[in-house]
Design a protein that fits this description.
It is built from 17 helices and 18 strands. It is an alpha/beta fold and about 500 residues long. An eight-stranded parallel beta barrel has the order 3-4-5-6-7-9-13-14, surrounded by five helices. The chain has a four-stranded mixed β-sheet with strand order 8-10-12-11. Strands 1-18 form a two-stranded antiparallel sheet. The longest helix is centred in the middle third of the chain and has 25 residues. It is globular. The structure holds beta-D-fucopyranose.
Length: about 500
Amino acid sequence: MPFRIRRHSYAEVGATLSALDSNAVPFPKGFLFGAATAAYQVEGSVDVGGRGVSIWDTFSHTSGKTVNGDTGDIACDHFLRLEEDLDLLAELGVRAYRFSVSWPRIQPTGKGPANPEGLDFYRRVVDGLRARGIVPVLTLYHWDLPQPLQDEGGWPQRDTVSRFAEYAGTVARALGGTVGRWITLNEPWCSAWLGYGSGHHAPGIRDIGKAVAATHHLLLAHGEAVQAIRSAVPAAEVGISLNLTPIRHATDHEDDVAAARRTDGNANRLFLDPVLTGSYPPDMLEHYQGSAPGFAVVRDGDLEVISRPLDFLGINYYTPQTVADEARTAQAMVAGYCVPTAEIDLISSDLHAVPVQRQAFRRTEMGWEVEPAALTELLDRLHQEYPHVPILLTENGAACADYVGQDGSVQDPERIRYLDGHLRAVLQAREAGSDVRGYFVWSLMDNFEWAYGYSKRFGLVWIDYPTRTRIPKDSFRWYAQTVRANALLPTVEATAGFRA
Ligand code: FCB
């Protein structure tokens, strides 16, 4: 049976909802439904308005670093099509929009006075959102470090922390009157471990000791930015977005259990513990003892800065991860796992852990396993181990093999199923006590997926790259219905699943 989604007009949704009341799954009043993007992934216009060069400009223009040599030079042309995209957000009906500010648009060299043209653009973003009744959620750093700061050493250098604090204060003073929700960093794990550990992301450095130092300086920059934002905008709600995931062991063999523990230490606790409890996990301090400069960059008082109280914890969740000890790959395969052929290794090499996946399990186009229950598991864990901090799901979504049909529509039942399943997982965690207050789909539109270039599509809106025409997908209409109803409606008759 083909997939069908009932196409109600938005006006009909209210009536439909009362007719289907018994089957609709409601969200709490005021639940912050949103959509997310990031500057380098959507804006383009990289040499317009006095913008400086970022590490992603340099990296994407280096041969062999991105699929097809794709760059963010034009991306979705969002910089020039801002009004059109704001109208799309209004049509989507989201209550909030998470976007990031491009540091090199504000400070082209990473230091010094603000570039007025850069600030103007984000003023237009924020004013345009507010005029449409949409809450702006501003991320200060979504990976686009000004290249001149990388030339001076980048995140492994302590000086970058002061530069970031200065930048945070500049943006907060300029936009604080109209922006109430602030995210300091997006996924510092990726900045540190893909940027300086595996080298799969900009600036493309492969050095474990530097990845540890970058981790610490990113976290310290976060803490300093919290302070800078609060002094400019006392009423601001401030958080950080961490990419977190449950780490499982392929078998119960003690070596696999230990490999999973190390991986959890690196992926989750290395960030959660300092930010929420003011200390680094002892097993990680020990593990990285021999990696210079590593934790030798930590100074007295740093952890107090890093653990300044937050108003919310942002979580970006996509997929669970299973690992085997690297000497036990064969046993993992006997136990029913396969070794994925993902181009980007999300497990750092120093952990001696191999990422494995269940055979014939549902996966997205990223090759990531689809398991909404793992999100509930993650939220339950956070609730148990790091209580008292409200949570925003600041990213969740799926890359699918979308295409434009002959009738001009983009039908994406797998994405709808993915989003529906994960929203149900959020509700389940809430029932168990987790204080999740909002959910942002990654992403509003297809965009530059970092090292994967334009080869992966995560959007609710299709981008026709040759013309930059926008086509809302079926998932866009589905999400619009969900947001307007503030409930999951039983409108999805999805029979198609992810390919195994
Ligand atoms: C996250 C990033 C985001 C996007 C999604 C798919 O790691 O924060 O920019 O690339 O993955």
